[in-house]
Design a protein that fits this description.
The chain has 153 residues and is mostly helical. It has 5 helices and no strands. This is DNA starvation/stationary phase protection protein.
Amino acid sequence: MNIGLKDKYKNEMVEKLNAYLSNVQIMYMNVRGYHWNVVGKQFFALHAKFEDVYNSLNEMADEIAERILMLDGKPLHSFSEYIKVSSIKERLNVSSAEDTIKALLEDTAKLLEAEREILALASDNDDDGTASLMSGFIGEQEKMVWMFNALLK
């Protein structure tokens, strides 16, 4: 497929997007765990919100995998691969409202860092498709950070 981008760049971007996909997939499972296990006075609000977050992460994963394919790459698709590549680690037995929110915010900070790095690389290489994708994700993640930080005050 020729979308007008250089092969060397596409290979580099596929590697970065696969690392990002791995982060998104590990975070997805973490948030599923928060959804299932959260306890406390904020249970109802957080249970519903975590479902929104993991559904959004699931959609993001699909969009990232499709972008990797557009760049002539192959998306990673196993948790053993994700665990090797991801900078976000599995979180086990996190259940208090405050702990789930703090963990979510820590992992979201890692997503934002990766998104900005990918956006910069894409912009430097006239890859408007990847840049647009990352720009949209950044806006969504920043809003989520703002909303969850409000819960901690």
